[in-house]
Amino acid sequence: MEQPYYTKKILERFIHPRNLGKIKDADGIGDTQNLRCGDLMNLYIKVAKQDGREIIKDAKFETIGCGHAIAISDMICDLVKGKTFEEAQKVGFETIVKEIGPIPPVKMHCAKLAQAALKAAIDDYLKKSKK
Amino acid sequence: MPKTYLDYAATTPCDPKVTRAMSVFLKKDFGNPSSIHNFGQKASMAIGGARQSVAEFLGCESEEIVFTGSATEADNLAIFGTVKASKITKPHIITSQIEHPAVLESCRELEKQGAEITYLPVNKDGVVEIAELKKALRPNTLLVSIIYANNEVGTIQPIAEIGELIGHAMSSGHRMSKIYFHTDAVQAANFLDCDVKKLGVDLLTLSAHKIYGPKGIGALYVKKGTPIAPVIYGGGHERGLRSGTENVAGIVGLGQAIKEIQNPKLKIQNIKIRQFRDKLIKTILKIIPGSRLNGSLTQRLANNVNISFDGAEGEAIIVMLDQKGIAASTGSACSSGSLEPSHVLLAMGLSEEQAHGSLRLTLGKLTTQQDIEKVFKVLPTVIQRLRKISGYHS
Ligand code: FES
């Protein structure tokens, strides 16, 4: 652990997350549990039509998770705004690390938690909109 | 911003008397204690003095003390060493579910090698029940290893009673071996009586850096006549039980630290620490709803506070507290980097979520009233903030 366990950027996001909370009339809600640590995450998305395509207009989250989970979820919410579902789900680990700096290897699953929650939220929307 | 350190169970700062005693053996009297010349002999004498100090603290002979590179190593020596020296082909070891990893992982390794291990449960207060231990005894039981005071929740185990029970068990029934009794007294040493005769133990582990001494030095008490084999081989230092040139300065530091914790002044300090602890527990539980104390309130080390908060995750609490100048811990610092919820809290019956949201504050001799008040000021806002992030409502 010779690298700082929490980098400056991660700390900043963790202390002042920008995309915190519920979206009241969310179009899709994803909740996931982290199987390794037992932590929980909810991710809310608001969907809009743009040029005939569905895009994520807004994304917010709530989590009982560590600082990395909080910072990464917050980052993901920023990164997926304005993207189509397909583009959004391509936001991978490398993109996150590029934005936020290195994460300790044991915390990889915290990043996955946010990705899983995003996927669940999209699935939730698709299921609802089919009916 | 003044830093408030409330993680004394992780490690303590060296007492100035300790560093002073040590520095002589890093600089002026640097000799190798195995050397016959004057430099070596000075170092050798110093080790003898430290050994004597440790022996006095434990109420034993100085030949019964083995210095090791850490308490983890001492635990390993106690467990692997007795099993190796035993003639039983399939020995049985009794330990608890709330041991330090140094003991737990050693037992797991022996289990892989074919030993039988019983991991005793604890009650919801985090204390081993004597009746359970009695039931667990088998004819091939070789070793019982129970931690004196737990490092995460500070619960004190009934070591003297267990010692007595083992004594009785040995005089009744058919046994394949004498049952040897080991305790890890690393956390206990600051606060509890460690007289090995009163406790009835054959093996006892100490660490220097938890008692205001340096890191990298531990000791194992091995009662005379206890069959034990080394785990490290070499030049035959420490009566062949721990080869390797002695860490002279470290040993001297441990000796000095042991002297200091017997200082009558410490008794008074410990009363103060206990008062701070009680105040912390009472006030936190009162001002923060959805919080609960983990571990017995009465069978508890004077310096340990361990509280779970609903809707907040332990590591996040620690990082936010650190940002505000308070150093604390979730469970044991030794296993940080592993994310699994505390095995100690799970053994006490907490759910995974509860176990993952715990905060440990451990106090020491430099803790002040201001430190305590800072916690009262900062902690509620941190918990509130994290609960907002988690969407938790009390
Ligand atoms: S440790 Fe649970 S989310 Fe990171």
TrEMBL record, chain A:
CDD domains: IscU_like (cd06664). One of its GO terms (biological process) is iron-sulfur cluster assembly. Signal peptide: none annotated. Pfam families: NifU_N (PF01592). This is Iron-sulfur cluster assembly scaffold protein. Residues 6-130 form the NIF system FeS cluster assembly NifU N-terminal domain. It comes from the Bacteria. GO terms for molecular function: iron ion binding; iron-sulfur cluster binding.
TrEMBL record, chain B:
It catalyses: (sulfur carrier)-H + L-cysteine = (sulfur carrier)-SH + L-alanine. GO terms for molecular function: cysteine desulfurase activity; iron-sulfur cluster binding; metal ion binding. It comes from the Bacteria. Its cofactor is pyridoxal 5'-phosphate. Coiled coil: none annotated. Keywords: Iron, Iron-sulfur, Metal-binding, Pyridoxal phosphate, Transferase. Its EC number is 2.8.1.7. Residues 4-375 form the Aminotransferase class V domain. The keyword Transferase applies. Belongs to the class-V pyridoxal-phosphate-dependent aminotransferase family. NifS/IscS subfamily. This is cysteine desulfurase. It comes from Candidatus Nealsonbacteria bacterium RIFCSPHIGHO2_01_FULL_43_31. The lineage of its organism: Bacteria, Candidatus Nealsoniibacteriota.
